[in-house]
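Lecture 7 notes. Example A: sequence first, then its structure tokens.
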Amino acid sequence: MSARVKRRLWRVIAAIVLFVAAFVTFRAITLPQNLWYIELIVYACVYAVAAYDVLIKAFRGIFGGQVFDENLLMTIATVGAFCVREYPEAAAVMLFYQVGELFQSIAVGRSRKSISELMDIRPDTAVAIRDGERVTVSPYEVAVGEIIEVRAGERVALDGVVVKGSGSIDTAALTGESMPVSVCEGSPVLSGSINLSGVLEIEVQKEFSESTASKILDLVENAASKKAKAENFITAFAKIYTPVVVALAVLLAVVPSVITGNFGEWIHRALMFLVVSCPCALVISVPLAFFGGIGAASARGVLIKGGNYLELLGKLDAVVFDKTGTLTLGKFSVAGVYPESRRNEILSAAAIAESGSNHPIALSIVAAANDNGLNVNASDNDLNVIASDKELSVNASDNGLNVIASERSERGNPLHENITLTEIAGKGVEARADGKVILAGNAELMAERGIEFTECAQFGTLVYVAVNGEYLGVIVIADTVKEDAPQVIASLKRDGIRTVMLTGDNFQTASAVAEKVGIDEFSASLLPADKVEKLEEIIARKSAKSVVAFVGDGINDAPVLSRADVGIAMGALGSDSAIEAADVVLMHDGLGAISEAKTVAKKTMSIAAQNIAFALIVKVAVLVLSALGVTDMWLAIFADVGVTVLAVLNSVRIIAFGKKNKKGDFAKNFPKTQDKSAI
């Protein structure tokens, strides 16, 4: 809870205590007629504690051009109550209003705290090579054309091109893709990337202020300012309701007075009219309905940062998805081995070659080999192939490769030692053991070594395997699509909602994922700025009242989450910056929560509409009666406080709805368990 919300909470508590004390006191004792002003002073103090910020905002609105808002309406109605000597009513109405505002403040209290994680992708220093010396300087001091050095584990400070060295870089902060990218001389690299291996010398091509990492930060800051803010219901309602009520009250005070000459009577009726018109039922029950809706969504693991975003969820026109970590798990696994008949041979050979690497491709291959009963561990350049069972035997005899666990081998005993592993930058890896040569890499590596191989048409990362110059087969590595993704996409499309995918991954992989989950359209190979641009195009095509949501999880998604009408972050797998930039947070990695939140939003809006209709019907009836002079203050109080109580009770139904359906149909339709198959 923020300091601001805490202050409001303590002020509301103080006002409630003072009001109760005053109400009980003045009901227990009867003041002499000449001391009537004591009650006025006491309730005025209660009123001041509860209402001082509303009064300030009302006067600021008058002079600032926003005259007819809810603050002015509350001020006029409560001051009118003081004028007709209904002091408890004046204080109570304002107190009710502040309670409603407190609920709203708590609901939106999970505000964006910072973009500290984003700042982490932009290094504070860079190592420049000047006159043969390595000098640590601020990135702002590095000029275009200078050479910077980036060692393993360090972030690239500025955009440039590799002029010396090779290795792998992690671009997840920029593209959202967890698969590292191999780089060598001539390869472009972007600031914010992490060098995973080797030492790179990079020729700087852009100043620090124009670097990719800096632009991401700028995008986050600027995107939020472009976002269309959903207007608070009461604010929108007050713009129409307040001038109408004030105009009618003035007419009621002036016109009959001129006709009858009884100014006092008709001014009193006008003041009563203003008291009755006070929209307490609306300012309490509507926010409470939204608060209940937020609670119902939270029970299903969906955090909504404000009632306005809950309202927008019920008006979705298009949902735009990131790919990795959103539609997919962001975990790579072996999707296939071809030919299947030689699966064990291919995996065994590839596992030996990849055993010395922490690259996701290597880890997935070794994991697949382990699933076949072979444990592969490597320390530096020493390879230990460990048998899980004594009788384990993995043979690739056709190609001269034999890895056999003898009966005398105990768990943990190495079968082969001192295997030489050589990384071939941008192409793969070579392993030498017992005079055998194992190659595992891309098609370029096979062609370079003159090995005849069969091109694989499968989508994903392809690892071709050869032993002693003879081709064995290919391993397909792919990300895993979330189990509930196709169901959620189908559900959204049935509701007439357009689905789009924006990803930093390549076109082929994006196409395969889009086809598997049923996405309507997609764009691939996008950097954060490109994603914002694509989202802007989608927003430009929508109607004025429709809503575009974006669902993402990574640092690179923060600008798009900020720009969308509704930003939805994957809380379980998402980065802190994505969660902070988002308006809605899914606390588990299942996409079914989007449909759940949408259902809760529609139910909440239905209850809020019921409250509005009921309150207005009663208000109009009592207003007519008060104008005719056939009502009294108690009926006015019922029209306000009584309707408020009934509306609040109706609002509570959304909380019951949330509890009732917490483990209902959604859990069945969108299971949280994940499919382990890959695309």
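Example B, a different protein, same format:
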Amino acid sequence: MKIKSFLIFALIIGVVSLFALYPRPIGDPIEKEVVILKSVMNILDKAHFKPKDINDEFSEKVYKSYLESMDGGKRFFIQSDINQLKPYATLIDDEIKGSKLDFFEKSLNLITMAQKRVREYYKEILSKPFSFDKKETISYDYEKLPYAKSEKELKARWEETLRAAVLDEVIQVMNRQENDSLKVNPEEKKSFAVIEKEAREKVGKDYDRLFDRLEKLRREDRFGDFMNSITEQFDPHTSYFSPSDKEDFDIGMSGKLEGIGARLQADGEFTKVSEVVVGGPAWKEKNLEAGDLIMKVAQDGQPAVDIRGMRLDDVVKKIRGKKGTKVILTVKKVNGSVQDITIVRDEVLMDESFAKSVIVGKKGVMENVGYIYLPKFYADFDNNKGRFCYTDVAKEIEKLKQQNVNGIILDLRNNPGGSLNDVVKMAGLFIENGPIVQVKSRDQEPYVMNDDNKSYAYDGPLVILVNHQSASASEIMAAAMQDYKRAVVIGGTSTYGKGTVQRFIDLDRTLSSSSNLRPLGQLKLTIQKYYRIDGGSTQLKGVTPDIILPDALNYIKVGEKENKTAMDWSKINSAQYSQDVFVVRNMDEIKSRSHNRTENNPLFVAIDENAKRIKAQNDQKEFSLELNTYRSELQKRKDDNKKFNGLFKEISGLEVANLPVDMKLIERDSASMARNDNFLKNLRKDVYLDEAINVISDLQSNRITLMDKNSGRVKTGKE
């Protein structure tokens, strides 16, 4: 495995090194963009798992994709704009080969002018009262919607859009006023004219904020969109990352950053503190609070910079910094006072990004069951001493074993995946040793990634929870445990269906040592496909759970298969595998028992009905713009929704509790306690967790006898 990985890395480095010959550019942004384009295309051609022919067909797909990224709702461009861009539809391939960016340059100028034009539209339209008595409708089926033929038609389309937004606000106020009729004096009730006027003002402010954000988009933001309209034609997971995007990705994967430990959000021209991260530098300093408005930022020993009106990501860059350095924030407190707050930056850990465990159980069925929540397969690729999901899950297992749990439930719902190496090691926690996944590189035979550690961490009953958003490494884990018959997998109709492997390539490697263009960003490149140990692929198809339960997304089009550029499904030969730690040999019986419990369970029946309702509402693309008609439509939706409000209530007999060893950390402050209480509260409402406990009980009551391969003696999974 190590040799194969080295060869892949060496191939990529070799490819990249071919292009480290660019001369020092003049400094024009186009020069940098051309270098990025050239580097990306060369790498895609030489190292992508399945390279594409760069031809007119490819060009047309890029053209369509980029237009959708700029104006997917067809609310900015008019047909004359499109006519100026249309000639490029079959020329983008030629521009790529010739390292030209005429199409991008033209599109950038047109969208900038279009946004300025539309900003005048909405201000003018919202200055006059709306009438809601016409039997008209608005369609949100943007794919079928043609571009407006003229500015007049575009303006009419915006009038329609704004009228719909104001109508929503008007109905909300009317409903609140009617619901509060007993609390409000008749004299204090607002007239329709006042309600409508205030609704227009609110919508106007909302659109002011939207267009402020649009105007703050930089050329590099648009260029990133353009590059990704190219890369996504290879597959959905190959993409260009600007330096700041890559930094955010690394933070997400490692669960840590160096900064002050505060979550920020844009609030008009100011930046607002939305949350102070427990245990972080700001939390320890005690002066910065949620709700504070940041007005200025100063580095230690330097003048303060006024950040009003600044893009949020630029503010974040100024506040983040190396551990041990100081930053001074000038903030306007919730009470109106202005205060300078000095904070020493430090490493900040996002606790919610990491694995955690609790004890769950069900009175009269099965108590003392371990539950492990894993939000992603995180890894700190830049620090061997950082947090890795494999080691964290191993620690959680040991903590649960100290409690003598009767089984473990591993929750991979909504887990998007992550580190391939970590999922291989993690699977090895539940088997002695053996293959976990097969990986195939371009033009090479598949190789097997093995768990080589002959020991295992846990030998008892195991249930894995998945859903439609469980992807990539989550699917590898679920598939391996399913193929080994080591666990019972529970979820919706299937998992996401991502069966490809990506690597990041630093584009700075394509530059000469003297270049002043750094940083260029990175390319996330699909270099491999992975396969189950039984030879099947999870690509497109995902993992089909052993026990399929109703799910809110069962009728919605989700997953890899819905992406037009997704790679195809394929199959290879099976690897040789076996394990005798714990084998689920009575799967048919387990399925039957679960089916008998859930088939007529009112909660699961309601979930299925709700899923159908969600699909019906999702499919509706046309809405009335007449007040009474639209209000009736909303009321019907509200009435339908009422049937499912409170669908998830605390389940009788379902018990959830923290491990004693974790309570010291949880009790260190009120915010941490609040998050923990909310986490436990949601688990007590979790009908899927409830059924998982039932399955653990079934597995315990049917402990499977296993034949020892060496002595021939009979042993149980507990031995």
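Note on Example B: The two ends are 31 Å apart (CA to CA). The chain has three domains: 52-234, 256-349, 351-501+523-596+650-706.
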